[in-house]
Amino acid sequence: MNTVVERELELQLILSPERSIPVPARLTYLTNDPFAVHIAFHISSENPVNWTFARELLVEGVFRPCGHGDVRVWPTKVEGRSVVLMALSSPDGDALLEAPTAQVSAWLERTLRAVPPGAEAEQLGIDDGLAKLLAPTAPTAPDELWLRDPWPSDESQDGEGGYV
After folding, report:
1. What are 77-107's pLDDT values in tens digits?
2. Residues near 18 by Cβ (< 8 Å), separated by ≥ 6?
């Protein structure tokens, strides 16, 4: 069964130290994709801008700076308010977004109840899949495999050929 944990909230796109604009966003967590969080930013275009990154990165970023490369997350205070900043980089450009810590934390709590930390692989069935993949198979008669002619000749009967 797949559970979806969503939250609509308004982020601030930081344009400069003095200027930001509101950006409606949707945080989404899917239990059938338990390692990831998805954020859709509804900017002034027909289609939202979607980002996907590790849930663990956002969880840690609420408490301390983390990440490198395309996604960096860290907590701070702005005018006495606790916020989480997300720096996103792509070939199309960079964005610095500010999210209210309380709303992000409440949503993360719901995702952590849906799939507790450390239970992500179990949710995907990775261990079961690996066990099946690595399980010994019933032995087939090796002589049967080696003695069968993979290219029966015209002289063989009923397609049965073989090495003698």
Report:
1. 998 999 999 999 999 889 999 999 999 999 9
2. none
Cβ of 100: how many Cβ atoms within 10 Å? 16
Pick from 9-13, 40-44, 50-54, 115-119: least confident: 40-44
Question: How many beta carbons lie within 10 A of that of residue 154, not counting itself?
Answer: 5
Cβ-based neighbours of 74, under 8 Å, separated by 6 or more: 61, 64, 65, 66, 84, 85
Task: Report the run of H or E that residue 142 belongs to, with start and end.
Answer: helix 142-147
Distance, CA of 7 to CA of 25 (rounded, Å): 8
Question: Which of 86-100, 121-135, 139-153 tops mean pLDDT?
Answer: 86-100
At a CB cut-off of 8 Å and minimum separation 6, what does 43 contact?
23, 49
CA distances from 86 to 25, 26, 42, 72 (A): 13, 14, 16, 6
pTM: 0.73
C-alpha 3/C-alpha 139 separation (Å) is: 41
Token digits of residue 157: 């009967």
